Amino acid sequence: MTPDRYFARQALTLFLMTASVSVSGKDIDDESGLIKAEGWEVVKSTCTECHAGMMITQNAGNLAVWESRIRWMQETQGLRALSVEEEAAILTYLSTNYPQKASSRRAGLPAHLLPTNPAEASD
Ligand code: HEC
Fold first, then answer.
1. Average pLDDT score, the chain
2. How many whole angstroms from 120 Cα to the centroid of ligand 1?
3. 13: in domain
4. Centre of ligand 1 from the C-alpha of residue 87, in Å
């Protein structure tokens, strides 16, 4: 390997190492998988009794969405009533750390780019 290529490879390796460190920069609880940010202990003790933390970490939503999930679990799955303080701490944690994701679908095609519909016979 020429010295140039050697240094290029070293630089790339270093770059990739730094990049992966910054991606996993968040502190994660080994047991529940929850991000260790303000309020995580309340969430761990209240929300990982019936199902794994992954049920939470794989979901996303704004405050209203998380609130509706809690209501649904209270009404149909036996989640206990939460105090106002508990619920506020939980909802803030969830909507801050697992927020609504931006839509990953592309925008629809504009009308002039759509193919003609063969079912709509033009006679
Ligand atoms: C009393 C039991 C119980 C507790 C406590 C509980 N859940 Fe659940 N949760 C369930 C059940 C049952 C399901 C449905 C599981 C399934 O679909 O396999 C569920 C599903 C979910 C889902 C997925 C909902 C969906 O739309 O697919 C999320 C997110 C969730 N729970 C979050 C939480 C959070 C946050 C808490 C704490 C506030 C919590 N859970 C506490 C019973 C519970």
1. 87
2. 46
3. no
4. 14
